[in-house]
Amino acid sequence: MGEVRVRIAPSPSGNLHVGTARTALFNYLFAKKTGGKFILRVEDTDKERSSEAYIKNIFDSLKAMGLNWDEGPDVGGPYAPYTQSEKFDVYQKYAKELMDKGFAYECYCTQDELEEEKQTCINEKRPHIYSGRCRDLSEEDKAKFKREGRKPAIRFKMPSKIMKFHDVIKGDLEFDTSLMGDFVIMKSNGTPTYNFAVVIDDMQMAMTHIIRGEDHISNTPKQIAIYEALGAKVPEFAHVGMILAPDRTKLSKRHGATAVSDFIEQGYLPEAFVNFVALLGWTPSDSVEIKKLENIISDFSLESISPSNSVFEFDKLNWMNGQYIRSMDNSELTRRAMKYMEKYDTSEYSQEKLEEIVASVKEPITVLSEITDAVEYYFGEDVTYNVEAQDILNLPEAKEVLTKSIDLVNSFDFSDHDGLVEKLMAFRKSFENVKPKTVMWIIRAALTGRLRGSELSAVFTILGKDRVLHRINKAL
Ligand code: GLU
């Protein structure tokens, strides 16, 4: 096998969707595994639906996932331009070549005429296939249409046959192309259609494998027919199953986030997200699911991708993200968590203390955005009590516990964490009529305004003596 060349070819009509992200990842993994090239191409022939903002989002999201490309619109490469709207003349040229060789023809049908044909098919209960009535127009016919002001589209003469091809993931496939009819490759406004531009680009850019979603399987026979007409080498195809939501319907916004940037914004770690997305269709040979990218690359093969659909289990993503958060080094985790602590005055703490704060709250966290709420009581002089905390502070025994805790705090050496824990342990058991658990709750409620959070010893050491005493007095 020569050098592998694969691509991701997003249409910038929305933010990078997880489905496209997974396709990009599989292409990237295959390129890295085989020492090949991973290329980014922007398929923006539909000017109405494309936007610069979406292009930026797609680039940024791919980069955030670490899927850097070897050739593309921004980095260039030997087959530039990598943006379809910059090469309309190239598509024109190939369309003309196909017409000259008799593989394509001008079609002068108007929208109304095509609509009428369609209606007739529907009425006669036949599949809707273009009749091909412009296939053999004479020069006079064409001249007459032109005089009427009609502008021609260009249609490809789809051969009628049983077309077979081998798909690396789906196996042997066959299609009856007589059911497809002659399809438009250039619209009357001079823009190419997807099926045409994609072939010209994949051919010119010397793609060896086309790895993409199975929603494109039905396009593949049309594309193969164009390769054959141009006498070009047909690449290998590998179609990946769809990504379904947990309810087994198509994954869409109503199920939650679908854009990569939304997941990252919510605080999914890109490395956890990439790991999770890789498992949507691919199974590691040793069944160990949490894997670094380099290990995914070394274990990856197209043949190990499942031909079936995969289910996007949000719970599994949350679990996996939590695993990554807990195993991450505290300074790195703090660096990433800063974004979620912007509403607080973090300058009141040293870097070391901020790391202690993040480390003390990370255990139950599934996404980084939960950090904002989790660290709230570490900032500002006072805390607001939630309902549970208020109930605890209203207990008749609260006053005694809090009053006595002042002496306890005064006895603490705040630099001796172990000693502090020991004293706290002894304190909780020192009441005859108050359960140790209740003692801890009362103190926790006073210091944090809630009943769940960091280890109490961490709360003491991070807040420091003055603020601890202030909050106890306030609660009293
Ligand atoms: N622009 C197409 C899409 O986003 C690319 C399909 C393909 O990979 O051929 O679906």
List the topology elements.
Blueprint: E1 5-8, H1 18-34, E2 37-40, H2 52-64, H3 88-100, E3 104-107, H4 111-123, H5 139-147, E4 153-156, E5 162-167, E6 171-176, E7 183-186, H6 194-204, E8 209-213, H7 220-230, E9 236-240, E10 243-244, H8 260-266, H9 270-278, H10 293-299, E11 310-311, H11 314-327, H12 330-337, H13 351-361, H14 371-374, H15 387-393, H16 398-411, H17 417-428, H18 436-448, H19 456-463, H20 465-475
Parallel strand pairs: 1-2, 8-9, 10-11
Antiparallel strand pairs: 3-4, 4-7, 5-6
The protein binds glutamic acid.
Structural features, described:
The protein is mainly alpha-helical. Among the domains are: 87-240, Rossmann fold; 328-369, no CATH class; 387-475, Arc Repressor Mutant, subunit A, CATH 1.10.10.350. It contains 20 helices and eleven strands. It has a three-stranded antiparallel sheet. Helix 6 packs across helix 7. It is elongated. The protein starts with a strand and ends with a helix.
